[in-house]
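Researcher: Structure prediction, please.
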Amino acid sequence: MRDIERCRTPALGGHLDVCDSCGHQVPAYNSCRNRHCPKCQALEQDEWLRRRIERILPTHYFHVVFTVPAELRALALYNREIFFDLLFAAASATLLELGRDPRRLGAQLGFTAVLHTWTRDLRFHPHLHCIVTGGGLGREGDRWIPARRRYLFPLKVIAILLRGKVLDGLRRAYDDGTLVLAGPACAHIADASAFAGFLARLRRIEWLPYVKPTFAGPHQVFEYLGRYTHRTGISNRRLLALDEGGVTFATKGGKAVTVAAHEFIRRFLLHVLPAGFVKIRHYGLMASGNATTRLEVARALLRAETPPSCEQPATDPSAPAPDWRERLLRLTGIDLSRCPCCKTGRMVRRALPAETPALHRKDTS
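Model: Predicted structure follows.
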């Protein structure tokens, strides 16, 4: 919260942009770069996607979403890192196992998984978004085995495997004594028999992962993936009003909700991840260990059978990375190099004068 409060304020220092034509001056303060800050994600996201483009394969893709029953959310909230790691492990093992099954595909898939923890009204709801290749590399590594365009695996089979792996993982964590079962939401299942009953009830509940329609090609995958990788619980554009009645923000389908200010902050902080936690992970062909081996074999096989129009555009690896202002212009249409006053001059960066009071005001927060 302190990072977000100080983001782009004098507390973090900055510089002065001066128009070389009319002399107009604009102070520009540094960003906090916190991954939970809604103002600091656009350029980070663009840079991440730029680095990932070489791993996109010229094939169709699926968007698989792994969710868990509402009954597990309280336990997940008290055991964030353990539960999030378990969800990644269970979901990835489910996809890889089904991909290897000769009755299903008999190949190694490639996919990227991204953790989200929120609903549109900022309630706690951990789930994974997975972008999965529409096929995989055969066991012998000599052929690409495509999946059907509109079908990956049976949803019921995905749900059963995911449920079994998550609940087995929770049982092991309980037996190891690593689960925190405290507070009004979890204390009632701390006893061994109560916890066993809790797991038994969850085994009887229908779990509901789902697969979204396939993508037309790697370009669409690339654009779609960007919507999920660096997203925070809420963006600034969804904030509609702040007054004595609370905070009003947009939810879904043109609707909005108003909550007290302290409740809004509480909900926002539900989605702050544990320090150092990796929320974007790559598996199968997309795993780092396969990036220069099996992934490249799959790419070569796909290129041999993919029309040139479907391939991603070639990039020059020796070309310098675009300046952050150029990337911001491309992403938002905002040209920070042009003077907002005279519209013709160029903004030149200078150091803020040492006597600027804002930079030397004592921080009493």
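Model: The first strand starts at residue 14 and ends at 19.
Researcher: Thanks, that helps.
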